[in-house]
């Protein structure tokens, strides 16, 4: 039996009409109303009565948006106790932290955003160490692989994307790096191999 790790991005922190900002490690926003709805959809999707999932372990960062998403998903249906892990905290966007997205694009250019979303090339001024994040994912996979069962991880977009370059193999079509809000991927882990099974899946409303 292998370990199955479900990696979710937290739900929305902005609703329609809000000024969207570049929310990173130093901006601790709660879920917005639409983000709560997204988390509830994930809760229903992963409920052990209606799915093959049963979370024995669960992890998030210390940011409210990840913790709130994880707690909603778990509810009272899964035996996991939620634990915070430092490496799951969002990246630091430096001088662009919590600035309106239009201002960020004006400073670094649309191509820099495309390169970040498609190739994980870090724009100038952001505080990111890709090698360290990949190493953190590898260590986490190794740790989790020692005990079989389902593991829930709720993190942020800047951290989640480096999961794809931390696995040993990819069993699905080559996915985009960016994980949309409330989307998730699945990594199966054994002592010999870490495999990305899916990426970018969404829980549909029932």
Descriptive account of the structure:
- This protein has a single domain (3-19, 31-91, 128-202), classed as Rossmann fold (3-Layer(aba) Sandwich), CATH 3.40.50.1240.
- Helix content is 31%, strand content 20%.
- Strand 2 (55-60), helix 2 (64-74) and strand 3 form a beta-alpha-beta unit.
- It is built from 6 helices and 7 strands.
- The mean pLDDT is 96.
- It has helices at residues 33-46, 64-74, 101-108, 110-119, 130-145, 157-160; strands at 3-9, 55-60, 82-84, 149-155, 169-170, 183-189, 194-202.
- The longest helix is centred in the last third of the chain and has 16 residues, at 130-145.
- It is globular, with a radius of gyration of 16 Å.
- It has 206 residues and is an alpha/beta fold.
- The protein has a 7-stranded mixed beta sheet.
- Helix 1 runs parallel beside helix 2.
Properties at a glance:
7 strands, Rossmann fold, alpha/beta, 6 helices, 206 residues, 20% strand
What is the third-level CATH name, the topology? Answer: Rossmann fold
CATH superfamily: Phosphoglycerate mutase-like
Helix coverage percent of residues?
A: 25-40%
Overall number of strands = 7
Low-confidence spans: pLDDT under 50, at least 5 residues?
none
Beta fraction of the residues? 15-25%
CATH class: Alpha Beta
- How many individual domains? 1
Give the ordered list of helices and strands. Answer: EHEHEHHHEHEEE
* Morphology: globular
Strand order of the largest sheet: 3-2-4-1-6-7-5
The whole-angstrom Rg is 16 Å
Number of helices: 6
Q: What is the CATH architecture assignment?
A: 3-Layer(aba) Sandwich
* Structural class by helix and strand composition: alpha/beta
Distance between the termini: 30 Å
Biggest sheet statistics: 7 strands, mixed
**Average pLDDT number:** 96
